[in-house]
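Take a record.
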Amino acid sequence: MRRRRALRSAGIAFLAAAVAWGGGFIWFVHAVRRLPDAPPPHTDGIVALTGGAGRVELALRLLAAGQARYLLLSGIGGGTDLPTLGRLAGVDTAPLAPRITLGRYAASTRGNGVETAVWAEQHRIGSLIVVTAAFHMPRALAELRQALPGTAFFPLPVGLADGQAGVEKGVGLRLEAEEYSKYLLTVSGLSAWFPHREPAPAAAVPASTGG
């Protein structure tokens, strides 16, 4: 009888957890597919969480259009230079270089938050446009809010920034489910217990002085 009750309790707990996860996932899918609110005409900064198509290009175009004073490209690979990124985006980066920082530290979303916090303190950033993929945006914002409490964030997902809601190319329910599970770990604080091999972030250096 005890074993039967234990199995029944475990089954009920599993079912409740599955229902809660499923309900949250429905919210998550709706959140990442809806159109974002337009950011204000001008903010203190823009951060692009690199690692996916179109993120750097969109961020550079926003800076060139005058939507912010400073730009951080967080998680840029060590061999990437600003002129090359500018050519891919169709933006002349030479006059913008003193306002752009190539962040070489971050190798994860948590690292993006740490790197952005260091840069934001240096540049006295109080409002920030966040550029990343739509499915990645909830977790990115969760990490950034933990690292930068009191900062105003304005999400601008790649793929939805042109005013078209829906599913980004190459993004399916499986990827969204994986990202939702990672999001839950972040908002619960459990992600901080996972090992991270990233070095301590150095002071951010403008791209014009060698990144």
Summary: Confidence is low (pLDDT under 50) at residues 163-167. The radius of gyration is 19 Å. The beta strands are 43-49, 68-74, 100-103, 127-131, 152-155.
